[in-house]
Design a protein that fits this description.
about 280 residues; mainly alpha; two-stranded antiparallel sheet; two-stranded parallel ribbon; about 70% helix; globular
Amino acid sequence: MNTNQTSRFQELLKWFIPIAAALAFAAWMYNSPEGALGKLDAIGYAVCHRIDVRSFQIGDRQLPLCARCTGEFYAAGLALVFQIFVSGKRSKLPSRGIIAVLVLFFLAFGIDGSNSYLYLLKQTSQGALNKIPNLYIPNNTLRLFTGSGMGITLAAVLYPIVNQTLWREQDDRPALEWKSFGILAASVVLINFLVLTDSPIVLYPIAYISALGTLSLLVIVFTILWIMIMKQDNSFEHARQLWLPLLAGLTLALLMILSIDLLRLQLTGTWGGLPGITG
């Protein structure tokens, strides 16, 4: 493709992507449940089982994501915003010490998730699985803390990789150092304890932050994918230059969420948790 063809193609994209984004957004808004929390439910519905008893509740209404996913995605969203303000264009992964802590977060997430899944299988099926002992009885407190640890891990790894992909000139320092990592981890622990109070004053913002954190992660992943496909790696100097790739990422994220929502709704007939599963 010559220079003129490339320029013409880019001009077409500047018109096509906003139109595609508007259509994807309209289709998602039309098909998702009514109300602001209903829209958040539709985001969670694409990535989470949404089992009622494994979720925090505002009165009789469950949050858009289960306890584990709530922790994971609110912490990931918070950690990404935190790094934007604290780390800027820093593009190096954290030190080995911090990576070791993140590995522990990942292992805790995997162990608690596996134990919880085994417990669920034993509740919903009979057979040889009943002979396998659980390490402990799973609960939403552990799901919240291990999920939020995983959220910090995802953001801590993703953020410098995004910077390595985007910027022409990079800051070759770790995106998280011990001080900033400690502040972030302590903030998440404090928020977790606030969530456990079950106060609507806390849970309403967490519902929004966790669902929007989910959407943000998907948008970032699809934006990076778009940039790689368009061969625009390391070609950006300012954040305002990212509007088109970000809009493309949002379009792809909404299409993915809508596709999964409609498929799951067709299979289950409900916007709630997986039918027949109450444990």
